[in-house]
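note to self: dont lose this again. the chain is below, predicted strucutre after it. 163 aa total, dont forget to put it in the shared folder this time
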Amino acid sequence: MAAQQSEEEEESENQWEEEDLPPVKYEYLDHTADVQIHSWGDDIKEAFEQAAVAMFAYMTEIETVEMRRTEEISAEGDDILSLLFHFLDEFLFVFSAEPFFIARKVKILSFDKENFKISAIGYGETFTLGKHPQGTEVKAITYSNMQVHDNENQHELFVIIDI
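---
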């Protein structure tokens, strides 16, 4: 009975529609044997959100992911670079282990730039072969050439993911 209720809840949670999706503000840059994600936003929070979506979009055709349920993550770091690393690594973990969650949209709930703490929610569903085309496996987040630019007119990130 409980399993049936959770399936029904999952079906009813498709309350987040495509019009709620932010515009794409990321690109993939060539890098030897890896991929560099370049993301940007109107503020540093949006640049972080876009980086997470870019990572998921590299693993499948993101348009096939429905926003049926959510997963929350939190991360901490010693500085802004380690915060970015741990933020992406937490989302990579929820994809790589049960519940094999893939997000179509990521929203930061809290972002403490002084203490380097972040909490976020991903809107998506369980990754399912057959529904979601298998893209390139992301093995790890790296610190290699990682950059965070958080200036008045520039909010962008560069992060290399190991594939």
